[in-house]
Design brief:
The protein contains nine helices and three strands, in the order αββαααααααβα. A three-stranded antiparallel beta sheet has the order 2-1-3. The longest helix has 30 residues. 37% of the residues are buried. About 4% of the residues have low confidence.
Length: 181
């Protein structure tokens, strides 16, 4: 199961790197019998205040609270740090984890509730009405599939290293996949 989680997180990390989002670190760990993972992006000092909430902030969604944008400071920070295309890149990176994990264990895609909630947060708050109308999730999924096809070997190499080391920083990921900042 740790390898499944490592593949999931490696896909996020590799696509974030390829899309120019910057990765500070990726890590996986065991929490009892459950394997967990996390990718921390490197988008500058403001990023921790802009990062979507871990649960996707569904209580703050526009459907639940029409004033959510005004209430949640993460919305303005996210929109400032990841405008337009970068928000789509973030969405693409976000969908890649569950898609990669489903490539090695098809039933795993249904278990990625936190990622799906984060994707919905990005769609609700960070994308333009035009991007939403044009099918942002479907577009991000199609792009992620193409990128996973192209960079699958790199995802697996990062996952194998991650399974052993449990934590990789951005420079180590760049070395493994052969990119430079």
């Amino acid at each position: 199961m740790l390898f499944d989680t490592a593949v999931h997180e490696a896909a996020h990390a590799v696509l974030a790197q390829i899309l120019g989002l910057g990765v500070r670190q990726v890590k996986v760990w065991r929490d009892g019998v459950v394997c967990r993972g996390r990718v921390d992006l490197d988008l500058g000092p403001e990023w921790p205040e802009a990062e979507p909430p871990p649960d996707g902030g569904m209580a703050m969604s526009p459907q639940a609270n029409p004033d959510a944008e005004a209430c949640d400071p993460r919305v303005a920070a996210f929109q400032r740090l990841l405008p337009g295309k970068m928000a789509m890149d973030y969405l693409t990176m976000s969908v890649a984890g569950r898609m990669a994990q489903a490539r090695i264990r098809p039933e795993a895609e249904a278990c990625a509730g936190a990622d799906i909630a984060t994707e919905q947060w990005v769609i609700d708050f960070a994308l333009s009405e035009r991007q939403r109308r044009l099918g942002a999730r479907e577009t991000a999924t199609a792009i992620a599939n193409l990128l996973l096809d192209r960079y699958w070997d790199e995802v697996v190499r990062v996952a194998l290293e991650l399974r052993v080391r449990r934590r990789l920083d951005g420079a180590q990921i760049q070395t493994i996949i052969g990119t430079t900042p």
